[in-house]
């Protein structure tokens, strides 16, 4: 099977707010079409936004009876402080700052306007060049993307 295109699709109660957030954060372009929006990026990938009027955002870090996180996105950046300012200016929320801001491999956890969790990460090597990702609260391997939209695969 050949994969021709991959689109990450997020559910959201407000398509315009959600697509504007991701376009602003990742320097993308919003394409609005009725009940479906998508944000395209120069690197050729997209984030789709579909309506979910009864959407219940996940509870992070997953304690309590509410919907718990099922997936999140990682974005590798050069400057965590600059990234934080941009996320907050666009309407995102800081859920958890980096545990130790002095270590070279660290991450902040945020929520987008609809409440989807995502991380901004910095690594001591170039994104994708490290053999291990920064220590995480979740288990497993992940893929991330730099804010410029380039892939940051972790083997």
From TrEMBL:
Domain VOC as annotated: residue spans: 4-123
Name the source organism. Clavibacter nebraskensis NCPPB 2581
Q: What is the lineage of its organism?
A: Bacteria, Bacillati, Actinomycetota, Actinomycetes, Micrococcales
Q: What is this protein called?
A: VOC domain-containing protein
Q: Which InterPro entries match?
A: Glyas_Bleomycin-R_OHBP_Dase, Glyoxalase_6, VOC_core
Question: Quick one: where's region Disordered?
Answer: 128-155
The protein's matches in Pfam families, at most eight in alphabetical order, are given as: Glyoxalase_6 (PF18029)
């Amino acid at each position: 099977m050949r994969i021709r295109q991959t689109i990450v699709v997020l559910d959201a109660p407000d398509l315009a707010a959600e697509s504007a957030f991701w376009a602003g954060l990742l320097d993308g372009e919003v394409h609005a079409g009725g009940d479906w929006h998508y944000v395209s990026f120069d690197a050729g990938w997209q984030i789709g936004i579909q309506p979910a009027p009864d959407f219940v955002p996940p509870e992070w870090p997953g304690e309590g009876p509410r919907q718990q996180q099922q997936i999140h996105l990682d974005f590798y950046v050069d400057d965590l402080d600059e990234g934080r300012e941009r996320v907050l200016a666009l309407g995102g929320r800081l859920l958890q700052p980096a545990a130790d801001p002095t270590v070279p491999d660290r991450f902040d956890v945020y929520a987008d306007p609809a409440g989807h969790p995502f991380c901004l990460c910095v690594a001591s090597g170039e994104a994708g060049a490290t053999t291990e990702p920064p220590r995480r609260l979740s288990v497993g391997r992940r893929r991330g993307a730099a804010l410029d939209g380039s892939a940051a695969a972790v083997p």
